[in-house]
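## Example record

The block below lists the input lines for one assembly entry, exactly as stored, with component labels intact.
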Amino acid sequence: MTTRKEWPLWEVFIRSRDGLHHKHAGSLHAPDAELAIQNARDLYTRRSEGVSIWVVPSARITASEPADKDSLFDPAASKVYRHPTFYTIPEEVTNI
Amino acid sequence: MAEVEKPELVTAVDEAALEATFQARVDAETRVEPRDWMPEKYRKFMVRQISQHAHSEYVGMLPEGNWITRAPTLRRKAALLAKIQDEAGHAAYLYSAAETLGTSRDQMLEDLHSGKAKYSSIFNYPTLTWADIGTIGWLVDGAAIVNQVALCRTSYGPYARAMVRICKEESFHQRQGFEIITTLAHGAPEQKAMAQDALNRWWWPALMMFGPHDADSPNSEIAFKWKVKRQSNDDLRQRFVDMTIPQADYLGLTVPDPDLKWNGETGHYDFGPIDWDEFWRVVKGDGLCNRDRLDARRSAHEDGAWVREAALAHAEKKRAAKSAA
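Predicted structure tokens for the full assembly:
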């Protein structure tokens, strides 16, 4: 077994064109942020998939617990009044 | 991906309940994501399958790399380089997907280099002529696409996402191969003979890429239950044969199978028996190129070690200088 240290893991986010959000593309290993961007260019934009790249050390991401899914997200399920279709508007009224 | 977590210790009762919940989610076509609870066996199964798949992409660069410097034109060379770069990329997507299950990149490479982990046997065959490069694109990538399209809906989210990306890129590989073979098959008699010779050597190994017959495939049952797999080895192999024979007909080439014939009743081509002894021989390490491939991978890894170490040391130095400033 090798005792060498692995390059850290980075998460890569790509903006596919201006006007859109950066979106998670995947991850890669790189020794630092600069090379992470270079590697992301080679790995995730070989076919003009992006105009901007974010890289974030994977270890710095805090994620919600799958076990908390219910307590976090269930409350929204019963709040149908947050959607426009909840409200009744007379048929003869338009543009609303 | 960051979302790697050691499975928690649970009691046997909890375990059974968790497993039932897991299976219900899989049955409901909900994708399994890295931090979700999953049976330890599922985790191991996925690590094994995804890392083997990654190793195949990784080793798959070698047979083609053999022809980069001898590609007949600049157009062919640029395409071949791009294809091989894609294979490296595909390996990287898949290694990342496997890492979300808690295994490390180093561990996977260690297992490849020690011979513990397998990769697709097809890459243990040599590329003797330029026609082999065309045939690999046409048949090997063609077979890989059939397998991989089926995996785009596999139950493990990161694996399925990697597959979608790979499938998008893979179709250029097959077309560049078919273009090479079309040129040869419609060229001089010597060129056509070269294309036929390559087809003779690659046809059966390509059919073996789909794995053993369903009856001899011990992992299939659990793979279906977990929706890792959705179509059987034999079904996918049949689909590949049905797709490929008309293409061979177009080229005026003949697949090396005297038993091959159209079956009007089933609507499929019947084909002859596969030499499974050869398959297992190559799997177990006695193919024509097994030793060469592993030696090449090991030395690339070892010879590149100083670069990886220097890059880390440089990053560390820059960090230290920045925090001192």
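The mean pLDDT of chain B is 94. DSSP finds 13 helices and two strands in chain B.
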